[in-house]
Amino acid sequence: MGVDRLALIVADPTVGHGQACIRGSRVPVSVLLDCLADGMSVSEIVAEYPSVDESGVRAAAAYGARLAREELVPLSIAP
Question: Around Cβ 62, how many Cβ atoms within 10 Å?
């Protein structure tokens, strides 16, 4: 994951209540991650959110991966 990708992620308190969004859009990173988790392809996401291009979707995935390395979300323990 390159730092350059993360430069596409911005948080502005006047846009989306300060949620992390893709630079130049009002699309929250969480929405793009939900789309990926639901099985949408990058091209489907770009078609659904035309203010975001492929690099924005990849930046969202990189941001999510970084969060997963830095923050532990409580999960149920496998039997």
Answer: 19
Sequence-distant (≥ 6) Cβ neighbours of residue 76 within 8 angstroms: none
CA distance 31 to 70: 20
Read off the pTM: 0.85
Among 3, 2, 52, 7, smallest CA distance to 30 is for: 52
Q: Using one digit for the tens of pLDDT, what is the confidence trace for 33-55?
A: 999 999 999 999 999 999 999 99
Per the CB < 8 A criterion, the answer to whether 67 and 10 are in contact is: no
Q: CB of 20 within 8 A of CB of 11?
A: yes
> Encoding tokens for residue 32?
């793009």
Q: In sequence order, what are the residues at sequence separation of 6 or more whose Cβ sits closer than 8 angstroms to the Cβ of residue 54?
A: 42, 43, 46
Distance CA 15, CA 2 (A): 25
